[in-house]
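We read letters as residues; the fold follows as tokens. A sample entry reads:
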Amino acid sequence: MSETPLAIVAATGPRRWFGISTLAVLGALLVYLAFSTTPSLSWQLFLLVVGAAALWLAEKTRRATENHIILTAEGIFSSAGEEIATLDNVEAVKRGTFDLKPSNGFTVILKERRTRRWQPGLWWTLGRHVGIGGVTPGSQSKVMAQMLEGMLAGQMPDLD
């Protein structure tokens, strides 16, 4: 990974904590509802499972959004050092209104498939599609998408 970041997408504090707390409150309410009311055993089990899943997702989101996404001349990387997509593997950038993309984000179409990976609130990978965004500000995602489009078109100056 190059040391020079061209663009950074990071979850802001208020967005991050709003998303995490919303999931945590939902999970806590579902678990509370399962124990406080006397539904049938199947409903009680359903509420417990969904509540536990929401609490698990809140914790996974908290851990994932501690990191940020960095665009360099070599590609897109996580601040944890994980390679998300190299520039030579990027085929296109989709950020239109009706494109499949995360909230406040964009989708990168790759030339080669990648293994599934998911960092809730930050990025995901499914086949040849990489979604970047979630609890991130749209302004940061827009800058990264535009820079990536420029790099693909060959309109970026030499960064070395």
Remarks:
- The chain has two domains: 12-64, 68-153.
- The mean pLDDT is 89.
- The first strand starts at residue 7 and ends at 10.
- The chain is about 40% helix and 30% strand.
